[in-house]
Amino acid sequence: MRTKSRKTEQIEDAIKAGYPVTTIAKKFKIKPQTVYSMRWQMKKGKKKVNLSKVEATIAKKLGVPLEVYAKEKIRMNKEIAPKPTPNTDFVREELANVERQIDNLNVIASFLAIRLRQLEQNGE
Fold first, then answer.
1. Predicted pLDDT at 47
2. In sequence order, what are the beta bridge partners of 2?
3. What pLDDT, on a 0 to 100 scale, did the predictor assign at position 76?
4. By C-alpha distance, which of 35, 59, 63 is closest to 49?
5. pTM score, whole prediction
6. Phi and psi of 11, rounded to 5°?
7. Which has the closest alpha carbon to 35: 12, 57, 17?
8. What are 1-59's pLDDT values in tens digits?
9. Could you identify which of 24, 25, 69, 85 might form a hypothetical disulfide with 32, taking C-beta atoms 3.0 to 4.6 angstroms apart as the criterion?
10. DSSP string of the chain?
11. How far apart are alpha carbons 112 and 84 in whole angstroms?
12. Would you say residue 60 has pLDDT above 70?
């Protein structure tokens, strides 16, 4: 039983999102062959389960052996795993766009608030 690092999880998420191998390799400063290997292992559907450090900590706090926790995680993933459809992908992308726009507006609001304080302090 092994735990995944955050970087590994991010690379797997990028592979699942369909980003090109070269883009992923440049972003995470790894060799393209590493990305190809990870993609192959993901497609192969290996029986090994990787738990994140947080999941391992939760299992320890609950007093559950990691093997039992991993088996339960596999069982739950099989039951709940939603099948992606073009509509859900579209809605997910639109939601991401809206969240980016909200972040941009928050940055603009913060800048304007700082600028307003500066103008008030200078008496303009």
1. 62
2. 50
3. 80
4. 59
5. 0.38
6. -65, -45
7. 12
8. 566 788 888 998 899 888 999 999 999 999 999 999 999 888 876 566 778 888 888 88
9. 25
10. -EEEPHHHHHHHHHHHHT--HHHHHHHHT--HHHHHHHHHHHHHT-S--EEEHHHHHHHHHHT--HHHHHHHHHHHHHHH-PPP-HHHHHHHHHHHHHHHHHHHHHHHHHHHHHHHHHHHHHT-
11. 41
12. yes
In a domain, 66, yes or no: no
Q: Are residues 1 and 66 in contact, defined by beta-carbon separation less than 8 angstroms?
A: yes
Does a structural domain hold residue 6? Answer: no
State what percent of residues in the chain have pLDDT above 90. Answer: 31
Domain count of the fold of the chain: 1
Closest CA relative to residue 3, chosen from 56, 58, 42: 56
What tokens were used for 44?
């192969």
Q: Is residue 72 part of a domain?
A: no
Contact 24, 15 (CB under 8 A): yes
User: 3-state SS of 45-67?
Assistant: CCCCCEEEHHHHHHHHHHCCCHH
**Averaged confidence pLDDT in the chain:** 85
Tell me, yes or no, whether 13 lies in a domain: no
